[in-house]
Amino acid sequence: MTRNKTPRATKQSQAAQPSQTQQRHIELFTRLRAANPHPQTELEYATPYQLLVAVVLSAQATDRSVNIATRSLFKQAPTPAAMLALGEERVREMIGNIGLFRTKARNVIGLSQQLLEQHGGAVPNNAAALEALPGVGHKTANVVLNTIFRQPVIAVDTHIFRVANRTGLASGKDVKAVEAKLLKSVPAEFLLDAHHWLILHGRYICKARKPECGRCPIADLCAYPDKTL
Asked: Which CATH code for domain 20-39+153-221?
């Protein structure tokens, strides 16, 4: 008795078909891309070094407050050498509107010195070297790697953590779990810009206290049970 066998080509075509969950994720990011084809960070910077400093300053602070401080700071100290010449006390004065400004001023001076001593003043393009700099953690390193060096990484902040859990893109109780799941669930073609799409979506639509689901382009794809429609 001859068994019916599924042709190899049919098996391959079936395997190539995205699952319903994958199709949902593709549609979700297709809509976010349509709404904002070229997402960018809202931190103001002119060089990789300036972005690194801005991201370090942005911890537990708004991008708006950081931009206010760095407009003057970067005019006087646009490079690591100029920042060292400016000195920690002056940096502290110039970023006084930002939370934790004393610690951040010390870190900015420290990372500037380390960049000059170990990297010729350039911002390194790998996570280990970045995370070895004063004040630079995993999230900060990922922002720089993604924004400057266009590496397919995601820096999970409070906005991304919230959006990932609410939508069902990547549910998790801590940022490491959410980051790992996002790297698996975000379709490859969207991975380079996923960080900025998700953070901006969380900042302006999927807000913490009252998400604006009525104007959300992905509301019908979202698993959040308490939508404000």
From this structure: 1.10.1670.10
